């Protein structure tokens, strides 16, 4: 019984990372109505930047500067800062060319095809950029926190993973508060409901959309940083693996629903760990996608979805 409870705890810890990536997808789907394939790339960039700072992978004197300023034990802090800056810049570039440029040049005639395809192009570009610099092999590093943990009864809680889960939930709750209670949040929800009407009401969509991309990028950056610190193994395709499962969590919870993405991410994390424990690692994808298909057959909109993506998301 204790072993089973331990796996539940492990699943929730993993699900906390999926939550942030699922919410990042949800923001773009909810606001702009297209699936942003650059989210896996942003997660991967943050994970690799964190690894590079921790493992001394930058070269060119950067690693020595990091150690001189912060010390060898605090290189992860530099990794986190670099990851956030890189992902924010990448998010703004992506917004400029996947959304603003196509919207300005082609208007609504593009529907959602060009943003989707161009985001897929950015994903492939960033993955192969990382491969060209650091190769395609698995990149490993030691966690700066080692195996620090505490016990409740006989259940082990990893301190870094517990902090990650708590931080993930706090960030998502703050995001939900912002969407509900602030002027920016009301503007975002107005765009999600009816973009044309929002423009008529004086909302500057051109200034709001980059904020959506930056928020989604920050969620990916934090998730990528925490993933590297906790699981210590990354590569150029780590974003694909994590984001694929996060998409399943988003759809399971309901397209465009932040709370659905939270529940979906946690459920998918639990299901992944329990599938490995009970059935073996080879059954993980069968379990995740089998459950997703079953839910969609019974409730096509997901657990908390709506028939119209623009209604009641946030």
The percentage of residues in β strands lies in under 5%
CATH level 1 name: Mainly Alpha
Distance between the termini: 38 Å
- Computed over alpha carbons, the radius of gyration is 20 Å
- Strand numbers in spatial order across the main sheet: 1-4
Classify the secondary structure makeup into a structural class.
mainly alpha
* Arithmetic mean of pLDDT: 86
Q: What shape does the CA trace take?
A: globular
CATH topology: ABC transporter involved in vitamin B12 uptake, BtuC
User: What's the CATH architecture name?
Assistant: Orthogonal Bundle
Largest sheet: 2 strands, antiparallel
What is the N-to-C order of secondary-structure elements (H for helix, E for strand)?
HHHHHEEEHHHHEHHH
Number of strands: 4
How many structural domains can be distinguished in the coordinates?
1
Tally the helices: what do you get?
12
Q: Which stretches of 5+ consecutive residues score pLDDT under 50?
A: none
Briefly characterize the structure.
By secondary structure, this protein is mostly helical. It contains 12 helices and 4 strands.
């Amino acid at each position: 019984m204790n072993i089973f409870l331990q796996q539940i705890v492990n699943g929730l810890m993993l699900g906390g990372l999926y939550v942030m990536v699922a919410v990042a997808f949800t923001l773009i789907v909810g606001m702009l109505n297209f699936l942003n394939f650059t989210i896996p790339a942003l997660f991967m960039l943050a994970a690799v930047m964190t690894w590079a700072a921790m493992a001394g992978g930058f070269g060119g004197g950067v690693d020595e500067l990091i150690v001189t300023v912060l010390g060898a034990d605090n290189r992860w802090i530099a990794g986190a800062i670099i990851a956030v800056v890189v992902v924010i810049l990448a998010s703004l570039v992506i917004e400029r060319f996947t959304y603003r440029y196509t919207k300005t040049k082609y208007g609504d005639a593009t529907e959602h095809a060009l943003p989707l395809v161009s985001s897929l192009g950015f994903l492939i570009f960033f993955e192969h950029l990382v491969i060209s610099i650091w190769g395609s092999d698995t990149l490993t590093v030691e966690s700066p926190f080692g195996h620090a943990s505490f016990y409740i009864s006989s259940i082990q809680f990893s301190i870094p993973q517990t902090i990650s889960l708590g931080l993930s939930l706090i960030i998502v709750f703050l995001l939900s508060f912002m969407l509900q209670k602030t002027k920016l949040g009301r503007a975002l929800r107005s765009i999600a409901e009816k973009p044309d009407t929002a423009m008529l009401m004086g909302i500057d969509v051109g200034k709001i959309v980059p904020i959506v991309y930056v928020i989604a990028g920050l969620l990916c950056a934090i998730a990528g940083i925490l993933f590297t610190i906790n699981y210590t193994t990354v590569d150029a395709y780590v974003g694909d693996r994590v984001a694929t499962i996060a998409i399943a969590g988003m759809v399971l919870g309901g397209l465009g629903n932040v709370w659905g993405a939270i529940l979906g991410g946690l459920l998918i994390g639990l299901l992944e760990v329990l599938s490995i424990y009970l059935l073996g690692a080879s059954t993980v994808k069968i379990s995740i996608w089998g459950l997703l298909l079953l839910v969609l057959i019974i409730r096509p909109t997901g657990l908390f979805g709506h028939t119209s993506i623009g209604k009641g998301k946030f």
